[in-house]
Design brief:
Shape: flat
Number of strands: 0
Number of helices: 7
Number of domains: 2
Structural class: mainly alpha
């Protein structure tokens, strides 16, 4: 191997080792606080490290929006678990699982913007749908309303039919306007 290649590999190794030690040091420092599980801190930082690795891949590779999505998603999930482990955000994953849908929607929007340079419907609509779905499920998961999700669906299922019809009408109108112009 050439000297330049050895230097490059050594620099990458040092960078990743330093990054890993940085995150592990912070994790153990914060995990040493009384009453906080070190395992939950390590799991949270594991997701942050995966997100950081995906961010590095987004910078280095051509499929940037793909890796940017996973970087944003895993970093949000890691920080959520970290704040939950420190009891700053007093919610466990059993009740806060709808946040995963919200995080996916929040990660999808900048990934689409990065790919096209502006907001595209192709990424914005699914991102908004994930955010709305997660928010609705979070309302039921946190017991904010006095009834369950199944009771809501059984009583209010006609709203789903109305929304489906409205969506079809909007799609038909948008394709007709594109065809006329």
């Amino acid at each position: 191997m050439g000297r330049r290649l050895k230097r490059f590999i050594a620099a990458k190794f040092v960078f990743f080792t330093g990054l890993l030690l940085l995150f592990l040091g912070i994790a153990f420092l914060l995990g040493s606080l009384a009453g906080i599980s070190k395992i939950s801190i390590l799991i949270a930082f594991f997701f942050v490290i995966i997100g950081s690795f995906c961010a590095i891949l987004a910078i280095k590779l051509n499929k940037r929006s793909f890796y940017l999505f996973f970087a944003a998603f895993f970093m949000q999930l890691g920080f959520f678990l970290f704040l939950s482990a420190l009891h700053i955000f007093p919610m466990n994953l059993e009740r806060g699982w709808p946040f995963a849908s919200i995080f996916a929607g929040l990660a999808l929007i900048p990934a689409g913007w990065h790919r096209y340079g502006n907001f595209r419907i192709r990424y914005l609509v699914p991102g908004a749908a994930f955010i709305v779905l997660g928010s609705v499920l979070l309302i039921f998961s946190l017991d904010i309303v006095p009834f369950s999700f199944s009771q809501f669906v059984l009583n209010w299922w006609p709203i789903l039919v109305v929304l489906a019809g409205l969506l079809l009408v909007l799609i038909a109108l948008s394709t007709r306007n594109k065809g006329e112009s």
